[in-house]
TrEMBL record:
UniProt name for this protein: Oxidoreductase
InterPro entries assigned to the protein according to its UniProt record, in alphabetical order: KR_dom, NAD(P)-bd_dom_sf, Sc_DH/Rdtase_CS, SDR_fam
Family of the protein in this entry: Belongs to the short-chain dehydrogenases/reductases (SDR) family.
GO cellular component: membrane
Keyword Oxidoreductase: yes
MF (Gene Ontology): oxidoreductase activity
Stored Pfam families: adh_short
PROSITE patterns with a match to the protein in the record: ADH_SHORT (PS00061)
Coiled-coil regions listed: none
Domain of life, source organism: Bacteria
Length: 260
């Protein structure tokens, strides 16, 4: 892909994979729109990347758990005269524990961010992305997309939705210049495990750094032959394939045991 002069919007950009996407894309010459709740951290990152790489970096503080937030974000882009060529839906979080014991409000926030906001923002920006024809729609799924995840039931279900939606959009966008990809990291050393409860016991698969995951995603986007979805890391990809081929009862048992 050709990044110089393009504009990429990244959600969840204040830390973790989102911040790493910003760092690596700025180094490739892309202009950035950084979106997250923590606007102070966004502004610091935007200023540093703009100075280092002579690109434009705009920070917009939006809480995607709030209903209607994607529309507010789209309106903010229009008000500022920002035309986006690429969208990376990276914002999301997980919860650990039995579904029956989950906090209902926190569960609603998970669905709002992982599912509703990703869907709404993709729909709002997709026509412009298709018209531009030079960028990407990159939705961050998870290795949890490939099987039910007892102990993280809602998270796994939300990421299965992301995988299915993105693959379908990619098929609908075939023939356009837009690159559509569902990218599924395995366990990644970010703040994710602090949010889900401060333990890496919720990890299933082989750990990678944020830099490794982002580099793999961008390498996939540079491929000539497009794939609708990719798992990050060979070991994680093998596990995802096995989960789909194994009897469902066995997969449920294995995942539940790993998470507990």
């Amino acid at each position: 892909m050709n990044y110089p002069g393009s504009t990429v919007l990244i959600t969840g950009a204040s830390s973790g994979l989102g911040a790493e996407f910003a760092v690596q894309l700025a180094a490739r010459g892309a202009n950035l729109v950084l979106v997250a709740r923590r606007e102070g951290r966004l502004r610091e990152l935007a200023a540093a990347l703009a100075a280092r790489h002579s690109i434009t970096a705009t920070a917009i503080g939006v809480d995607l758990a709030v209903p209607g937030a994607p529309r507010v974000l789209a309106d903010a882009l229009q008000d500022r005269g920002i035309a986006v060529d690429s969208l990376i839906n990276n914002a999301g979080f997980g919860m650990v524990g039995d579904f029956a014991e989950a906090d209902p409000d926190r569960l609603a926030e998970l669905v709002a961010v992982n599912v509703a906001a990703l869907t709404d923002l993709s729909r709002l920006l997709l026509p412009a992305l298709l018209r531009s024809g030079r960028g990407m729609l990159l939705n961050i799924a998870s290795t949890a997309s490939y099987q039910p995840t007892p102990g993280m039931a809602a998270y796994g279900a939300s990421k299965a939705y992301v995988l299915s939606l993105t693959e379908a959009i990619g098929y609908e966008a075939r023939g356009s210049g837009l690159r559509v990809l569902a990218f599924s990291p395995g366990p990644t050393r970010t703040e994710f495990f602090d949010v889900v409860g401060g333990t890496e016991g919720a990890a299933v698969g082989r750990f990678q750094s944020a830099a490794q995951v982002v580099a793999a995603a961008l390498a996939e986007l540079d491929r000539t032959h497009r794939r609708p979805s990719v798992v990050s890391g060979r070991a994680n990809a093998a596990t995802a394939i096995l989960a789909r081929l194994a009897p469902r009862r066995f997969t449920l048992f294995a995942v539940a045991r790993a998470l507990r």
